[in-house]
Automatic annotation (TrEMBL):
Gene3D superfamilies: Ypt/Rab-GAP domain of gyp1p, domain 3
Pfam families: BROMI_C
InterPro entries per the UniProt record, alphabetical: BROMI_C (IPR055392), Rab-GAP_TBC_sf (IPR035969)
Record organism: Sitta europaea
Domain BROMI C-terminal Rab TBC-like span(s) in chain numbering: 1-243
Name recorded for this polypeptide: BROMI protein
Domain of life according to the entry: Eukaryota
Gene from which this protein is expressed: Tbc1d32
Leader sequence segment: none
Length: 244
């Protein structure tokens, strides 16, 4: 149901010019038979973890590893068409996105390991503004960003979402905000970790699906409200740890 719902919703929006924030060129998916060696060691490890988790949730079959590898390679090629060249020694500004694509993996699981459905969805989704905040590799070296922003190597999720989370925390949860300041650790650091990993290893699968769906249906600002609500939920634990 979740897969069908987000598929139809994104298809509807991506066909409307007013909702298409990004222009994307045409891209034809490569052959499904992609060797695992085409992926970096980080991606290979991520694929193994994703497939193991998918099988645990009874969402994936035995041959899922090849399908997910193909999705990741195709996503990289598709997004490469919209990247600019930047000469920098920073690890995060090399040709390949430094981390693992947790969002594409989440969509792969939501689509029950269907490679074609996943790729079609991601191509349509990449036209929408919310893709910039949910799918972090989407804006890696992107031509849609000013050159100076790309050269700093700081993702918009950090200076948009994480910044607004800290502003809201001051107003909504001043005690939590103070606890973070006392620890010398910023809320934006942990939020960036949550958002980059699509809350994997922090929330149950159904909650991860709700997070993705809420942001797609209601807008990227719900990413901010979601993080603040998690801090509210954890408030007593955070304050207890601060005292200790």
């Amino acid at each position: 149901v979740m897969a069908e719902l987000i598929e139809n919703f994104v298809l509807h929006l991506s066909e409307s010019r007013t909702h298409c924030y990004f222009s994307t060129g045409s891209y034809k998916a490569m052959d499904a038979d992609v060797k695992k060696e085409n992926l970096s060691s980080v991606q290979q490890l991520g694929v193994e973890m994703t497939v193991r988790y998918g099988k645990y949730l009874n969402l994936l079959k035995e041959d899922a590893e090849n399908g997910l590898s193909s999705v990741l390679v195709n996503c990289e090629e598709f997004l490469k068409q919209q990247q600019r060249t930047v000469s920098s020694s920073l690890c995060c500004l090399q040709e390949h996105y430094a981390g693992y694509d947790w969002f594409a993996s989440s969509i792969f699981l939501i689509m029950s390991g269907d490679r074609e459905k996943t790729l079609t969805f991601l191509q349509q989704f990449s036209r929408l503004l919310v893709s910039a905040f949910l799918w972090l590799p989407r804006l890696h070296l992107s031509m849609h960003l000013p050159v100076t922003t790309v050269e700093y190597g700081i993702h918009p999720v950090y200076f948009c979402s994480a910044h607004h989370i800290e502003m809201l925390l001051k107003a909504e949860l001043p005690l939590v905000c103070s606890a973070f300041h006392m620890s010398g650790f910023t809320p934006s650091q942990i939020c960036l970790q949550w958002i980059t990993q699509c809350f994997w290893n922090y929330m149950d699968w159904s909650e991860i699906c709700h997070y993705i769906a809420i942001c797609i249906f209601l807008g990227p600002d719900y990413q901010i409200y979601m993080c603040v609500s998690v801090f509210r939920h954890l408030q007593q634990d955070i304050l207890k740890h601060t005292e200790a």
